[in-house]
Structure formats: structure tokens, C-alpha cells
User: Fold this.
Amino acid sequence: MRLRLATFNLESLDERTEHGTTLDARIAVLRPLLTSLNADILCLQEVNGQSTPTGRTLAALKRLLEGTQYAAFAEAHSGDASGKPRDVHNLVTLSRFPMRAQRQIRHEFITAPLVRICTTVPAPPNASEVTWDRPLLHVTLDVDGKSLDVINLHLRAPLSVMIPGLKDNAHRWTSVSGWAEGFYISSIKRNGQALEARVVVDGIFDADPGARVAVCGDLNSGEHEIPIATLRGHVDDTGNPALGGRALTGVEDSLEAKQRFTVRHAGRPLMLDHILVSPTLWGAFRNAEALNADLADEVADAAGGIPGSFHAPLVAVFEL
Assistant:
């Protein structure tokens, strides 16, 4: 059986107009792109929620998916404590296969680290928690009578966290040390949540050493950065061949170097979106594609806004 698994950051999909770009204009660009993916499982990031009298819904996403194969797919989404979508940056996993289970995880396995701010004056007397920006979304699918675990993950971007009293406005810092400390705390968020996702993956392997597992999403990290190394868990890092069955492989490794990117940042191509798979899935892997041919630059083209996304979808094909 052929299976197509895709991940795509929709870049704050919403009903609200941003930079003069309407939802209708975005749908005109995004819907054909989603359809062309022909995905059996689709992991989406940055799906905003819309307020209604009964709570937030994913109305903008519903409009986007109208008339596509995904409208009839099983759906799981992240949200608040009540299960309703949050205002911004929800995770959504869509599947043509039945969902056996779904859960969102945030600080269930990794306690929020405590950090005491040092660069602001006066320094606060107590440490404060550094929490992840979003939960991860874990679904277990029934694919041809066997389980497939898919973790949809959107890690913190490498942007400095706000340090009280050290910015003139939203974009200008008054202290290099303050900016650096904010950058340091941002890295704690990104690396810490990658660790929690890795713990979730190991829990799946504890129950089934031959499990089919995929970690998909906008990981805001390149292949040689700490979050990716944490999630992959390669034998070169652990030094223990007995743990090789728990290592994850990035399908993007199969792409030619000139095609290995999902974001353009100030002219630089970056591979920030990933699909990392377990050995059982890697053995069934056939090919991958990043649909980046017409990708805009998130710095050079940001001011005017674009109807699509500054991220390219990544799709992997397996023969199960």
C-alpha cells in the first residue's frame, strides 16, 4: 500500500486580513497546493482559531478544505484545556485512516525549567518558569490494521524572548546582553520541547520496539542543530548500537542539496520543516519532495505580505 505523508506550515491561517491579504486570496493559492500534495496524512501548523458565541473553532481551515479530499478526513487539533482551538498557532493532523487515539502533550514529561533573569536592572529576585509555546499533538492511526504514530510538532522560532525593560519597541533592543539572554531562553524552549517529543517517541518504542513512528512539522532548526539531533537520537551520538532501533531518520536527507530547503530567509535556503521516521518506516520509504519552486523570501517579501506561505510543504512517500 502506498502512503503519502506531508507537513505544511500554513503561516497563521485566519479569517482576519493581514498585510492586505484576504482569506479568499489565500485559499486561491493554498487549496490547489494542498490538493496537489494528495496526502493520506497531513500535518498542519499555524492554524488560527476563530471566535464564535460557543467558543473558538477552526472556521478558516474548514473553508480552506472545502471541496478537497481533506474535508472528509479524520481530524485532530491542539487546543486549550477545554479542547477548543487557541487563538493562534494550533496544530492540526488530518488523516484518511481512522484515529485510534489522540492527545496533546505539554510539560507532561519535562518540567518547565526555572530561569532567573540576569540582564534586566534590577534583576528579579526569583526564577520563573520557561514554558513551551505550544503543545505537541500525538495521534495513533489505524493504517491497514496496524498502528502508525504521528507526532505533529512546531518548535519555538529562534527569536529572542522578551526581557522586561530592555526594548524600546517590539523590534528594537536597548541591550545586547538583554537580547542575548532572550535568545538563550528561546533556545531552552526549542531544545526542551524537542527533548519532550523524544521522550514521547521512546515511550512508543517501549511499548513496541518495531513501532511505525513519524515526527512531522516546523522544527525551526537545521539538520545539524540541537533539536534535530535530539529527535534523531543517532547511534553516533548515543554511542550504543543497541539503541539503533530507536533512531529516527529525516526523509529530507534523500533530497538533492539544491532542493533541500523549505524556507528562504534573506536569500538563504533553510531546511526548517522535517519528517523524521522510525527504522520500520524508513525501510518502506520511497521518495520525498519539498514543493519550494515558487517559495517567497520571508524577509525580502514580508512587508507586502503574500497569499500563500513562507514555508514549503514537505511530502514523503512510503510503500507499506
Remarks:
- The chain is about 20% helix and 30% strand.
- Residues 2-319 form a domain with the Deoxyribonuclease I; Chain A fold (CATH 3.60.10.10).
- The two ends are 5 Å apart (CA to CA).
- The longest strand covers residues 2-13.
